[in-house]
Amino acid sequence: MTNSVPSLPLNSGTTIPQLGFGVFLVDPDDTQRVVEDALSVGYRHIDTATGYNNETQVGAAIRASGIPREEIFLTTKLRNDHHKERDVEGAFARSLDMLGVDYLDLYLIHWPMPANGFFVDTWRTFETFAADGRAKAIGVSNFLVPHLETLLAETDVVPAVNQVELHPIFQQRELKEFQAQHGIQTEAWGPLGQGKYDLFGMSAIQDAAKAHDVQPAQVVLRWHLQTGNIVIPKSNSRDRMAQNFDVFGFELSGDEMAAIDALDENRRVGGNPLEVN
Ligand code: NAD
Q1: Is any ligand 1 atom within 6 A of the Cβ of residue 164?
Q2: DSSP H helical segments within the chain, as ranges?
Q3: What is the pTM assigned to this prediction?
Q4: Could you identify the atom of ligand 1 that is nearest to the CA of residue 167?
């Protein structure tokens, strides 16, 4: 199963498994079990963040799995209160320490926090992690086009990834187009809408699920994969992890894709990056 997950190229010269596993809101007490389950299902891409308070347990799960470090793509994110230039190096080193690894596959600025005005300096420090190899790739999260334009104009390394809220109700077409033009991969957080909509009850999704004899969540993930998004669905349940990983045995038709494309309401469920400060 593992080999069936496509890898997408990053501008760092490395690659990222297009389907991974996220651990937002996974209780630290459950995280080791949950990540061990995800690895046993076949996931080889884990997305955490310092702000999730479970880096230590993610690292413990990776070690307990016995899977060689280099076979796992590991992402974590800089917490919002560590943006100041003098805090970034220490925060990065603590993340490596908590995860028990000597490099990350991807390190992200979690939110741009534009009102603070630090993200350009923060990014310059990120560039040093890429240069010394402790981060194989560096990227951002929740950046809007103007924030990306600022980085492109004022710094040297183009972010490899922008991880943003993205699901059928909020498809982010303009941002995706901008990113494609600049070689920035689009990674979808909340790919299932965080369970905050009745996405799975919508007829475009239900109809495709019936036609392919799969679950609605699998249709949504398949839509992401076919539109080129990197996806990192989260579930504490091993059965759902397995369901979410089993999305390479069917393909949505052009009409089915178009019906899901038409669900876009340009509506967020999560925070607005201009207001998270
Ligand atoms: P998600 O869209 O993955 O939804 C998770 C919810 O869907 C959970 O309630 C889960 O029980 C349910 N679910 C999962 N699989 C299901 C299935 N097969 N059938 C029915 N229900 C199912 O939301 P998320 O966890 O917020 O996003 C995924 C990951 O993205 C996170 O874990 C985290 O790693 C990342 N994330 C990043 C940011 C950011 O600011 N960068 C913000 C939120 C999440």
Answers
A1: no
A2: 28-41, 55-65, 85-99, 119-131, 145-154, 173-181, 203-212, 216-226, 238-245, 254-261
A3: 0.98
A4: 2
